[in-house]
Every structure is written in structure tokens, then in C-alpha cells.
User: Fold this.
Amino acid sequence: MTDSTWDAIVVGAGPAGSAAAFALASAGRRTLVLERRTSVDFKFGELLPPHTAPLVKRFGLDLSGLIELHARARGVVSVWGDAEVREQDFLFNPYGDGVRLDRPRFDAALRERAIEVGATVVTGARVVDVSPSRDGGVEPELVAVAVEVDGLVQLVSAAHVIDCSGRSAVLARMLGSPRIDFDPLFASARRFVGPTASVDRDPFLRIESVPDGWLYTLVVPSGERMVVFHTDHDLDADLDSALAQSVMVGPILDERGFVPVGRVRASPAGGAWRTPLIARGVLAAGDAVLAFDPLASRGIFGALTTGFGAADAVVATADGDDGAIDRYIADVEATTTEYRSGHRRMYASEQRFSDRPFWARRLTDASAH
Ligand SMILES: Cc1cc2nc3c(=O)[nH]c(=O)nc-3n(C[C@H](O)[C@H](O)[C@H](O)COP(=O)(O)OP(=O)(O)OC[C@H]3O[C@@H](n4cnc5c(N)ncnc54)[C@H](O)[C@@H]3O)c2cc1C
Assistant:
């Protein structure tokens, strides 16, 4: 990182950060990406739904190529609202099938595309402080970012900085931008392996509601099954009890001889929103601006949309379009409103467990609107 002044700085190299960096660098902007991690061996989010096709196309990638490298996702099988097993095949989707992702590999491929179009990505670079332009920064019009690399803190600056640091939203938190949490959803995940690697080629995402939350399972390209349980963090429920109550996911694991491996991984998973303009010169994108309940299956879609959207707004603003950032803000707000009403409808369609706190809370939320 020899230069200290850039046209734009992107914090975080997940899908949102790679989309932002790709758009900025493609538009000829000198772009620095700062990513805290040097490698990733696990990440939540294994399904790339078909409607993501236009967004991955902007990277010069396509879903059929990704299916070759990862694995095909044929649709969604659900037990939700009643005991019937329903199959929704992507056969009828205009974009075709989705992708079951090796997630670290997918994120690395997007990052690689950003580098290929000219972005500079520094890994092992943890952002530790920020001072926006109104506070002076290095020069009055620049946002200064302090970043720790190999134990040394350096200052870098740019007219525009995009916070793509995921749910941790480092810049937003440092700048005191409040987050609005829509619900206290929490996910616990475990990998399961069968007796042989080829035991299960199930190409469907399987979703099931249970009395204290809901489960999903998906076979990832390695042949392992990811099993994820979602409940509220204050409820006394866990993955094992959810599997014992399940009529689809639990029996699949038992019948196919799957056993758990590795530790349980946990993550906040509720919907959350904050204003996209955190401070002058600082925008947020991806989970840092709008995080979705995984039930919506639109986290990566949303991260790519807002990553591109924030970067396009930065490029347009620098080119003299004074309304570009306001339009980005309006787009995020419209998506948030639309997501919240769809989310309420989805939870309201499960009434069997309405006497349990997890569902009662969501039904109250739905009836209040
Ligand atoms: C249980 C669960 C299941 C999910 N399943 C799906 C799914 O099937 N399909 C789907 O589309 N989405 C799914 N998602 C959501 C999806 O994974 C996220 O929406 C997506 O990863 C958000 O991308 P992002 O780029 O905004 O953030 P992230 O992918 O979180 O990337 C943020 C990056 O910022 C870096 N960073 C953080 N702090 C700093 C710092 N101080 N300095 C520098 N870098 C920093 C991090 O290391 C990270 O690489 C799921 C989420 C959960 C919790």
C-alpha cells in the first residue's frame, strides 16, 4: 500500500465490497479495498438464487459457469404452514437454476474480478478508525481511514469511502450511525457428513418451520450437509432440539446416515437497517446497510445490488450528478419497505405454532401492520 490517497476506499471484500470495487475500478477510479482477513474457511450463505444472474453477469460471470465450478441448485422444498412437503422447482424460473456455493471460493472469485479490472486489494488490513471530511481528515475534502497492517497503523484517504464490512459495519459504528434491528433472529449451523462422500446429491434447499424457529439444510459442493437452525437469541432452543421436532430435515439426516462434524457456528441473522449515508463522503452497502433474514434468500443479491449501487452513486457524484446519492438512499429505503412486508407475510403464513414465543412475536408484528 504505497499510495495514501485514492479516489475511493472500500472497507471489506465480501460480495458488497467486491461489487463496489469492481464498479469503481471499471469506471477508472483508483480504488483501494481493505480486508481484515487473509483467508476464510467458513462463511454462512450457500445458496445463490437464480435472480442473481444479472448481477453476477456484471462481473463477467454467469450462473452456468458457476454451476460447473460449484453445484446446481434445483429449487426449494419446504414444510411451512402445514405438514405438506412442497417443491418449488427453479425449472420455472426465467433465469434457470441457482448455485449451491462453496462460499469462500465464490467470494474469492468476485474479489479476483475486482482486481482484474484494476482495484488494489490489501488483505490482513483491519480498519481501526475513520474521520470523515467534515472533521477535517487529511485534507478538508477527504475522508481519512486508519488501517492496521502487520501491527502498523497507516492513514489512507479518499473523497469517498464505502463501508462494506458486513453486519459488523465498522465505519458506521465508529461514526455512531444507529442500526435498527427488525428482529432478534440468531442462526446456529453445523456441518453433517454421510457414510460416503457421494451419499447425498440432493440439489434442493430444504426449509422447515419448527415450534421454536425454522431450519434449512443444503448439500454444499464438498458433499457435506449444512444444517442451520434459526431462533431468537433469548429463547431456550437449540439445533438438536429443533432436529428432534423436525419432520423433514431431522429424518433426512437419520435415514441417510449423516453425523455432525466440527463445532456449531453461530451468527446474528435478523433483518437490520441503517441509513445508507453514514457521514459526508461515507456510504454503507451490503449487510452494513440492510441485512436480511436468511429466509428471504437474498443476502448476496442485496449485497451485490447495494455494492454496485453505492459505487455507481459515487462515480456519478464525482461526474457532477448531484442527485445520485439521494437516489441510492431512496432505492435502499424502497427495498427495505418491500422486504419488511414480504417478511411479515412469510412468517404470518405459519400459524401452527402461534402459541410459541418465536411465532407469537412475528404474528403480533404482522397484525400491527
Ligand atoms: C445463517 C445465514 C445464512 C445465510 N444464507 C444465505 C444464502 O443462502 N444466500 C444468500 O444470498 N445470503 C445468505 N446469507 C447472507 C449473506 O451471506 C450476506 O448477506 C452477505 O455475505 C453480505 O455480504 P457483505 O459483503 O455485505 O458482507 P460480508 O460478506 O460479511 O463481508 C464483509 C467483509 O468485511 C470484512 N471486515 C469486517 N470488519 C473489517 C474491518 N474492521 N476492516 C477490514 N475489513 C473488515 C470481513 O472480514 C468480511 O470479509 C446468510 C446469512 C446468514 C447469517
Remarks:
- Residues 324-348 form the longest helix (25 residues).
- The radius of gyration is 21 Å.
